[in-house]
Structure formats: structure tokens, C-alpha cells
Amino acid sequence: MSHQKLFNVAVVGATGAVGEQILNLLESRNFPIGQLKLLSSARSAGTKVSFKGQEYTVEEATPDSFKGIDIALFSAGGDVSKALAPHAVEHGAVCIDNTNAYRMDPQTPLVVPEVNIEEVGGHNGIIANPNCSTIQMVAALKPLYDRYGISKIIVSTYQAVSGAGSRAIDEMLRQTRAVLDGAEVNPDILPVGSLPVKHPIAFNAIPQIDKFQDNGYTLEEMKMVRETKKIMKDDSIDVTATCVRIPVVYGHSESVYVELKNDYELEDVKRLLSEAPGIVVVDNNSEQQYPLATDAAGKPDVLVGRIRRDLGNKRGLNLWIVSDNLLKGAAWNAVQIAEHIAAGE
Amino acid sequence: MSHQKLFNVAVVGATGAVGEQILNLLESRNFPIGQLKLLSSARSAGTKVSFKGQEYTVEEATPDSFKGIDIALFSAGGDVSKALAPHAVEHGAVCIDNTNAYRMDPQTPLVVPEVNIEEVGGHNGIIANPNCSTIQMVAALKPLYDRYGISKIIVSTYQAVSGAGSRAIDEMLRQTRAVLDGAEVNPDILPVGSLPVKHPIAFNAIPQIDKFQDNGYTLEEMKMVRETKKIMKDDSIDVTATCVRIPVVYGHSESVYVELKNDYELEDVKRLLSEAPGIVVVDNNSEQQYPLATDAAGKPDVLVGRIRRDLGNKRGLNLWIVSDNLLKGAAWNAVQIAEHIAAGE
Description:
The structure is a homodimer.
Chain A lengths: L6 E6 L4 H12 L4 E8 L7 E4 L2 E4 L1 E2 L10 E4 L3 H13 L3 E4 L15 H4 L9 E3 L3 H17 L1 E9 L7 H15 L38 H14 L5 E5 L9 E9 L5 H10 L3 E3 L11 H4 L5 E8 L6 E8 L3 H16 L3
Parallel strand pairs in A: 1-2, 1-6, 2-5, 6-7, 7-8, 9-10, 12-13
Antiparallel strand pairs in A: 3-4, 9-11, 11-14, 13-14
Helix pairs in contact in A: 1-9, 4-6, 4-9
Organism (chains A, B): Paenibacillus beijingensis
InterPro entries (chains A, B): Asp_semialdehyde_DH, Asp_semialdehyde_DH_beta, NAD(P)-bd_dom_sf, Semialdehyde_DH_NAD-bd, Semialdhyde_DH_dimer_dom
Protein name (chains A, B): Aspartate-semialdehyde dehydrogenase
């Protein structure tokens, strides 16, 4: 009987929406944990969290928190990752970062395990988890890229409010009840907590996620553009995105138009997708079966459906891609990377 | 002083969501009505409706209902239009039909006044109002088509539940309250009332509007494809659509990618749109101003924003187009046509 190696794990942002899902997954996946350290901002420090029947007290994350830590999972915002991940690395930890802080850093691998797990080996202490909306799209497109090549991607997203955090969910539910009761709606958080103008999300669609850039795109849209090219290792893919927040709690949906570099047969595309890891094809029009956010919620899979030819361009293809933004879009992707490291692969 | 000519007007489907808006507009626009006849199915006959302070009793629509009628506005479903519009024409009425019954009939003009009002002159008794999702898109694209030409349109819609009728709105509000209260959601109408499988619309996004066609597209998607080509009088435009129902009451939003035939300057596009009839440009990123369904609701305008270049294709352009699906998307477009006829233009 072999003795399994155990890892000292720190979860930074343990009380947040993603941190909570990371802990659920570490528990349900029976991750080989030696010591577990739950970290957060000063504001949430002191919170009690239960893990495998044991109670843990969340501590304030400081540079010294990472002594003896082997794997640190960060999801407490980009500023926290920027400030603390280098200290964790100094102490010998491998950091898996869920924020935008290191994604486009050339030294940092940007990893979706189904797409480019081999990149993990080249890390310098930090491995970045891509943006939620990017992860599910590249997971679905990778098998098509490998088989046909991709020249262009045009994506419009239908993103869940949980992507903006627990407080945004509370705001949406509060606003929704106000509308149903004929009361006043006073937007307070969305679209972007740190910006002055607020818009109602209840019974609405807001075409702004994150701040506007000088080129007229939002940061969320530019994340999809840049991260897709980096993960696919192909700057020649022409990506354009429109990112929209809609009144959904969990599960991002995406309408993706892709132009392949070579001719394809629709049945081959469906077969490639159905054989791809992490992908579940839900595509049966006569039974009215297609991916739905409410079905994707709580599942690790990326659901793909509405697979159909562009009627005008024989290399054009439409897809509807849905996944739980807190799971494959964040926590599950990070834990997959952690499992890969733990397995010493 | 001239005596204004008066018209005997019939509104078929007077108790429906669109019929109600038609009556509001005929009243607020002070349409030159002689006799007003409110018609409906047998089920709704007998309903009392107030118009300009006078009470009208809705009558069951029959072939003889149209004697003496000059203008008949139909919005009671395609079957009713197919059965009764020919009788109205026989009686000498001009029919403005809000349903899908005659849109693709080569003898029937398909009219968006801002785009092709001149087509009205060629009618044989019936003028078709396009589908709501098509109207707002072509109204916004026409000025760009005229100036640059259009080779390709890729549209993803975010459509309001009111497009599926008043009962669908009730269903969404009921489901939403059930979710908030932790009660069970029992979908009964959406996505398509006449089909067996139902999906929840509360906090969800359903990528099916109307029935699936053999080519894998829904009828709603194919309406956008075919009607756009017919209205623009250009079969060479390559259109592909993904139509999605989201939890919004009034106002369809559309993420539209358009490839122009010629190079463009972004400022020229913005100027052309801001000068176009029926279009209001809402596009100020630094002030976080862009079209929102909640702002479009109740207004006749088509709002256009998020106007930005495709970063990869210099002839590619992204737009976010929003309008009230019951107004410009249905009732207002029909009343505009009626006003054109009444003016004898």
C-alpha cells in the first residue's frame, strides 16, 4: 500500500462565491490535503467555515500566511493576487490564480486543462485560471481548432450575475422582488461596483461587464479576445466579443459564431464535440433539447448545442455554449489544475 | 379650412398585447378614424374596451366584419390573417398584417417605413409588418447599407417575453416569484405554447423562439434571415441568427455583427445612425450610456449603441440594437404604415 503525498493548501478568498465552490470541490474530490489554511481580507477574517466536518477559522491573508504552503488557490480579486502571490511563490507555493492579475503575463501559463494542461509544467510559481467566459468557449472550440483550424470567432455572451459576486446576486434578487411588488428599484452595484453609473439588472440586459477600454470594448470583452489567442497559442485567430449581463443567477450562455479554416461535415463536428473531454453535447431539436443555464448550474460540464451550419458560409458554424461560471468557469478549472499538480503529472 | 378624410378602421386582435398598443397609438396619434371596429376571436368577443373616452364592445371577427372598412390592422395570429385578410381585401380594405402569414408572399410588400415605405404603393390589399426582431435591426442597418453596402450580418438576440404574448409574461412573473420564494417552477407555455416540451424562463436564457426548421434553425431565426433580404431587396446579404428568449418583459436587445462591403470611419457610422429616422444613438462609454431594454420600453425609437470596430476585420462592425418589441417591433410600425396610407402619400 502506497502512502499518498499530502499537500498543504491555502485558499485565499475562502468566503467568496468562488472560494466556497473551491472548498466544496476539494472536499468532494477528496483532494490530498495535509494542512488547510483559509484566508481572506481583514473584513472576513474570523469567519468560521466547515470542511470535512472540521471547523476552520478564516485568517487575514498576509505575506507570512504562506509559510509551508504547497498550493495556494487565489480568488480574492486581482489586487490581492498581485500583492500576495509573489510572497506565496517565495515561500515555495504554487499559486493557481483565478483573477486577471497574471493572465496575460508572458511568464505565466494560462490553463484550461482540456486545452493546454501541458503548459502547467512551464510555470514560475503562478498558473493563471482564464476568465469564466473564455474557459467554456475555448474548451468547446479546441477540438474544432485541432481538426479544422479557426480563422474567426464572433461571440455574444449571456452572463450570469454570480460572476459579479454574491452581493450582485443579492441585488438582483432584491430588485426582482421590488419589480414584482411594484416597488422602486435602486441599483447599487451593477454593472460595475467601482464605477459611478448603476443600471437595473432585474428584467433587463446590460451590455457592460467590467470597465470600458479606449478601443470601445469592455475589459471582459478584451479578456475573451486576448485570452483565447494565448490559450490557443494562435494570434492569427480573429476574435470579437460582446459581453452582456442578463438576469440569470448561475451559468453563462454564449452564442458563438466560428469560421473554420477548412470545410467540415456537421456530423463530424458533433462527433468531435461529443468525444471531447469536459464537453456534453445537448443538441436534439425535435425533443427541444439544448443547453440551458438552469441545467448547467451545479455541474462541471460545458454544454454545447444548437450546432448548425451558417447558411451563407460553408466554413461558418453556430454554437450555443453554456457552463456554470463558478465551476468550470472558475473553481472547477482551478481544482483541475491543482489535481494535475498533486498527481505530479 | 379643409375637411380631413376619415377612415373606417378595424383592429383584429384588439384584446391582445399588440392590439392594445395599436389602439393606444391610434388614440395618441389622433388617427383620422371614422368608424372603429374592434374584432377578436370568439373567446374574447364581448370584452369592453375604451377608446377616446368611448366604450367599444369587441366583436368576433368574421368574413363579414370588414364591410365598409378602409384599413384593417391584423394581430391575432397567422391563421386568423390567412382566413380573414382575403375577405377584408374583397370588401375593399387595405390590410396591415402583423403576423407571419404573408411576409414572404412575393405579392405582399414587407414594410419598415424608415427603410422601404415606397413599397406600400405596390400592395394588392395586404401589407405585411415584419417580425419584431427584424424590424429594429433593418431600421438600424439601412443607413449603413445605403452608404457602404453589407455583405454579412451575424445577429444574436436577447428577446423579451412579451413577444410570446400576455400569458407568457404572466408565466414569467409567476415563475420568478416562485424562484424567489423557493417554490416549485412549473413551466407551462414557453418556449413554444403549441409544443410539448416546456422550459423555465425565470433566471434562464432559452435558445429557442418558435419551432425548429429542418435546417436546424428556428422559425424566428429564419424570419430574420429571409425578411432582412426581402426588405433590403438584396439576396446577396449573408444573414445568420441565433434567437434567444431572456427574462425581460418589454424590449428586444440584439448583438449585431455586420461586415460592410467598403471601408468605413467609425465617426461616419455614428453620424449616419444619429441622422437616420427613427434611430436614437445611445453611445457614451465614459458615461456608461448604452441602449437598455428597460429604457427602450414604451418608446417608439430604435436605440443603437456599443458602436465599435471589429479589431480583426476593418470592414467589421459591432452594434447593440434595442427597441420595444410591441411598439416599433409591431404596433408602431403598423400604425406608421396606416398613417402613410391615410396621408395618401
